[in-house]
Amino acid sequence: MRAAVLREIGGQLTIEEVPEPQQPAVVVRAAGVSFADTLIRRGRYPQMPGFPFVPGSEIAGELNGRRVMGFVRGAGGGYAEKAAVDPSWILDLPEGASFAEGAGFLLGFLTAWIPLTRQLPSVEGRTVLVHAAAGGVGSAAVQVARHLGARVVGTASTEEKRAFVRELGAEAVYGYDDFADAVRPDIVVDPVGGSVFARSLSALEPLGAIIAIGYAAGPWEDVSPQLIVGRNISVVGFYLGRLMRLRPEVVRAAAEDVVELWRAGAVKPIVGGEYSLDDATEALDALESRRTVGKIVLVL
Length: 300
Hints:
- The strands form 3 sheets. Strands 3, 4, 5, 6, 13 and 14 form a 6-stranded mixed beta sheet that branches.
- The chain is of the alpha/beta class.
- Helix 3 packs across helix 4, helix 3 (106-119) crosses helix 10 (248-263) and helix 9 (240-246) crosses helix 10 (248-263).
- It has 2 domains: 2-105 and 269-299, Quinone Oxidoreductase, Chain A, domain 1 (Alpha-Beta Complex), CATH 3.90.180.10; 110-241, Rossmann fold, CATH 3.40.50.720.
- The two termini are 12 Å apart.
- The chain has 11 helices and 14 strands.
């Protein structure tokens, strides 16, 4: 079968013939492109896989006549015509949903839903600031926070992206140079990291919390406990992969919750770009350069 293979750090993905995976295997119709895939390509992911490596953790396709979506078995393998799966992490695709939407749903919405509903007290009526709100995780977080009754504001790097976030339902959207002076959030959803994380801590209201999800802008700056104690604020960390291993029942219950929200029309995945398997490198480049909105997917 054909797969997009990464053979070295910093390399291009090449389309190669590789052995078919063990059963059960999904016939892949679409694969989600995540920021973790770009970090692996750059050698910056905390748990680097061995090479050669087929990226992709999130897929949608067909399994024994079912239209499904879910996660691959192991660290990768989604950028391929077939992918090995654990049936525990496979769900039926909602009626009328496309494979591209299915491949762009679970990772982002679980990353937003679990910390906002399991790790924090109620967010209803509170101000939630979502960084990188035009991206895959950010666009999911905007929708989830609004569904939970929060007042949602966001950040995005361009006016085009800020307009997109306002269309999702954010009351206000700022640039990264403006937010710290413009808003005092109760909760921050942060997939950006770097200096944005540090400035967000200083912007939080007393008894507020920041959810640290990722570091797209670079490693987190060190934070003194003095700042956290002195400002009466909290830092909440979220890493979906480890939670899936250690508390799978929590993730499975959350997956059922967010899929039901999708079926009810309360939320929906935003597919911002579709690429062929042959253009997998271009898809990673587009995501890494932050030219995109929503979720980027490979369509097979």
